[in-house]
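Please annotate this fold before class:
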Amino acid sequence: MRQVNEDRVLDRPDRALWAVADGMGGHRGGDIAADLAIAALRNLADAPIAITGAAILAALERANEDILARGEGVGGIIGSTIVVLHIAEGEAHIFWAGDSRAYRARAAGWHQVTRDHSLVQQLIDQGLIDREQAARHPQGHVITRALGVDSRVEVETMSFRVERGEVLLLCSDGLSRSFDPEIPAEFDSTDPCVADRILGDALERDGSDNISFVIVSPRR
């Protein structure tokens, strides 16, 4: 339904680095903001250096600066949410700002591992609304963190041990708003039809926003 796709994806299994960015700003250049976010991470993946948490955070700081400068050039604020996954020595490292999410799945089902930086999440945390009310809240798209909005972006991080047979998923809110965590997680994650099943289910439920996601099956 959107005329412009403001989502961008990074898929670099050779460097164990993946990301999803969701731009904001509409005609002002949300797609450009997402491009700049992914470009900073792609440059890191292309560089002949080790990928570390500090290097990823530095790349996101550079992206923040680039998006701020581009926003000034178009006379308004543009920005992008971001969620990044890096896997090293059996550990998954997640970096995010905004409401692009990371999930992990085992045989028991899917579990959201990131916490949205959004107005409705704050209202949930304060006990003012429940998740059912949040799903239809009129300010459901208002986020509280993003690249390109302030001079310094606050990126949240987390790490956890990747279990054998586990599957990880990164996505923009176009998927998470209609993602069914009850979709069986017992599947062959190397089968491309898995993505088709997740996408088809999401489109049946909503499909009003751009849907982008990456499925990662770490090999242990």
